[in-house]
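Today's session is about reading a structure prediction critically. Students often jump straight to the picture, but the first step is always the sequence itself: look for stretches that repeat, for charged clusters, for runs of hydrophobic residues. Only then move on to the predicted structure, which in these notes is written as discrete structure tokens rather than atom positions. Here is the chain we will use throughout the hour.
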Amino acid sequence: MKPFESQNEVAGSYLKELQTALRDGAPQVRDEVLNDIADTLRGLDVDETRVRIRELGAPGTIAADAMAETASLEDTGPSRAYPIITSVALIVGWYLVPVLGWVAGLIMVGASQHWSSRVRRNGILASVAVIVVSTIGLFAFRGTDAWLAGVIIFSVLPFLGNIFVADYLRRRWALPGQDLVSTAR
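Below is the predicted structure for this chain, in token form.
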């Protein structure tokens, strides 16, 4: 049911004032507050409506409270889930889906706008450097008596290196004051 349907004159006037007071708020919050108050007033006679309106308070006060709550919810910042999932993709992706899982993690790093371009570039380059060094280690010891050292380097270094890269990225997730849309310097 729409807010102004089945309302008496007093309730309709109050709801129009409330709608005007909420005009600068987020549409979802505006609709929710307006519908909740309309439901509260629906079906009351004129005298009961006046009593209930006095209990509710001025439309400006209700609007200010609703917008203050909305502002505090918006200030929480971006979710920490994305950097955690990206970290897992970088660290474990190399082993679960060889090469492709790690590449997916790199794409996630590059795609996020919550890291500055400098942080994204450094994270990607460091992760690639770790893989290059571990691959060189594998080929350097191939065909020698110390081939096991090459295999260990190739197995362990991507894991350890990407742990540090992931930690670097998580610590710099959506830092206040960083230029998130700037180009690489």
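Discussion point for the tutorial: The two ends are 55 Å apart (CA to CA).
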